[in-house]
Design goal:
The chain has about 325 residues and is of the alpha/beta class. It has 14 helices and 11 strands. It has 2 domains: about 170 residues, Rossmann fold (3-Layer(aba) Sandwich); about 100 residues, Magnesium chelatase subunit I, C-Terminal domain (Helicase, Ruva Protein, domain 3, Orthogonal Bundle).
Amino acid sequence: MAEAIDIRELNEKIERHSAFVTNLMTGMDQAIIGQKHLVESLLLGLLSDGHILLEGVPGLAKTKAIKTLASLIDAQFSRIQFTPDLLPADVIGTMIYSQKDGEFKSKKGPIFANFVLADEINRAPAKVQSALLEAMQERQVTISTNTYELPKPFLVMATQNPIEQEGTYPLPEAQVDRFMLKVVIDYPKLEEEKRIIRQNISGEKQMIRPVMGTQEIEDARKVVREVYIDEKIEQYIADIVFATRYPEKYGLSDLKGLIGFGGSPRASINLALAARSYAFIKHRGYVIPEDVRAVSQDVLRHRIGLTYEAEASNVTSEEIISKILNKVEVP
């Protein structure tokens, strides 16, 4: 009975602390029509302290989404357009000689912001990608001999264009694994498209006013850690990830020849973190199996390696995840 009371108390606390989510969603809706999944994913990444890899054709409001979120939170935003001639110094910064002082000084790069949009990350060479990914992982940057902490909160949203692969440098699996979520977004629905046309030809400028500060996000992250995950849910998460590694143990022998490699422990950790944040967004103090299922595609999509056989049969990692979710026993 004590636990039931605790859960009730926790629920009330989460409801109180997650009230700002509604304000953020409303603010995003004013600027962006449709793309609910993209907006939700940005909030999941923000609350879980993870980064997002976004795949979608140009013109789907990817830049607008993260820019609007930064404005609503009154946070610093910077955009880095990745090109083949970019250097690591263009991202993290470099040492510059000051004639006035007669010494070298650190000039910080655009990575020093709360929200960083890495546009078309697969257009830049490997050393630039690794400079960005190191900053994402370590939350700090070293310029010459000086090490600087990155601001908090710190969220990188990297975009990839799925249609044009000429002259690109695909991210290696080990680096893709550092992104908490890989989100694939599609075209808007017909009704949404009509509203988008209407909004953009009216000529009215959308004024986005901050609804909260960065400190409130930091506080919310601490509360998210209190969201209760039952042992049965932990078992469910472990089973899903293990099924990507050893599908035959879960009655999915047909998948064995299609999966080159499964999710790492990072997949399990991120699945739990994302499910927790999802419960928080839904104003709930505990995680249910539906939360895990809701975030599974985005967390696992880029963590399952397909064999040549799978690619030849046009099998996608999404189909494999769906089969696993349908087969693994729900607690």
